[in-house]
Amino acid sequence: MAELFQFELVSPERQLLSEQVAEVVVPGTEGEFGVLKNHSPFMSTIKPGILKVRNGGGSWDEYFVRGGFADVASGGLTVLAEQAVPVKEISKEQLDQAIKNAEEDVADAKDDDTKQKAEMTLSQLKDVANALKAA
Fold first, then answer.
1. What angle do CA 98, 104, 109 make, to 5 degrees?
2. From start to end of the chain, where are the E strands?
3. Alpha carbon distance 92, 98 (integer Å)
4. pLDDT tens digits for 94-117?
5. Rounded-to-integer distance, Cα 33 and Cα 29, Å
6. 43: which of 2, 35, 75, 80 is 20 to 30 A away, CA to CA?
7. What's the whole-number mean pLDDT along residues 30-49?
């Protein structure tokens, strides 16, 4: 059985999780990465995607996260997400609205950099929608 470590998942609205867990899989901007107890310290930005948490009993919980930072330190892992919602609480309507908003951001972009960032967010949200459909 995997050793447990402290994990904190925080969004601007609330703290979603603060408990001892066995493993966390984070959607990093440079690629998905897993964290176990005693992982080497580092920081990463995160992209919109599904954050997976394996508790001490071995079951997995999933959270949709939209941007933010992951900080792996000797005390555990802290994820500060721009938005975080348990997957079981996400409605198709919410996700469809987020995609519509991202499409509007692409259309309203005033410069190439802003448009590129908006297109990236739109692409990531569509990836999440596809991942949720497949699950």
1. 125
2. 5-10, 15-28, 31-35, 42-46, 49-55, 60-65, 68-73, 76-81, 84-86
3. 10
4. 888 989 999 999 999 999 999 998
5. 10
6. 2
7. 93
Spatial CA neighbour of 86 closest among 56, 123, 58, 50: 50
Q: Is 2 helix (H, G, I), strand (E, B) or coil?
A: coil
Cβ pair 100, 80 in contact under 8 A:
no
Torsion of CA 134, 119, 32, 24, to 10 degrees: -70
The encoded tokens of residue 110 equal 């005033």
Within 10 Å of residue 18's Cβ, how many Cβ atoms? 12
- Angle, helix 92-108 to helix 112-134, in steps of 10 degrees: 160
pTM: predicted TM-score of the whole model, two decimal places? 0.76
- Write out the two tokens for 24: 């966390």
